[in-house]
Amino acid sequence: MLSLQSERISYEYKAVDLRKEKQYTAEFDKLNPMHLVPVLVDGDFVVSDSYAILLKSILRRLLPRDPRLKALNLQAASIISSSIQPLQMLTVLAKFPTLRRIHESYKTLPEYEASSPERQPDAMI
Ligand SMILES: N[C@@H](CCC(=O)N[C@@H](CS)C(=O)NCC(=O)O)C(=O)O
Fold first, then answer.
1. In terms of domains, do 16 and 40 share one?
2. What local confidence, expressed as pLDDT, does residue 1 receive?
């Protein structure tokens, strides 16, 4: 636990060690039953999901006032939280044993190897 003071916002930072699966403790379950960080606790108000936290009043002030610039900032936040970040979550890494087994089995086929993304003419290596 760490108490910090930025220019105008004081807050307490509580780290949740995902490698030790601290997101599954009973205490954290009360904050976010989806077992994901980040979570913002403001008195008795609790909100999870970085996009929703961004839109909460205090952080909303960090967004540009110009509606076009604001839209571009929200676009970046949405792309990260909806399209990029979900692919890196611990819940989807190193799982899907059946798909992994099929992939390992197919890898012995020359046709399968030849069709791999990195072997395509337009692959960016
Ligand atoms: N869309 C959510 C995603 C939250 C998320 O996936 N958090 C990751 C860490 S960046 C997490 O808590 N992972 C724990 C797990 O996968 O068990 C957000 O933007 O807050």
1. yes
2. 42
**pLDDT per position as a tens digit, 37-69:** 999 999 999 999 988 888 886 677 778 899 999
Instruction: Note down the domain range covering 36.
Output: 1-67
**What are 1's two structure tokens?**
């636990």
Instruction: Report pLDDT digits (tens) over 78-94.
Output: 898 888 888 887 777 78
Which residue's alpha carbon is at the smallest distance from atom 5 of ligand 1? 36
* Contact between 54 and 60 (Cβ < 8 Å): yes
In degrees rounded to 5, what are phi and psi of residue 93? -85, 140
Adjacent-strand bridge partners of 46: 41
- CA 6–ligand 1 middle distance (angstroms): 24
Q: Determine the atom of ligand 1 nearest the C-alpha atom of 18.
A: 14
Residue with CA at minimum distance from ligand 1 atom 1:
81
Greatest CA span in the chain, whole angstroms? Answer: 61
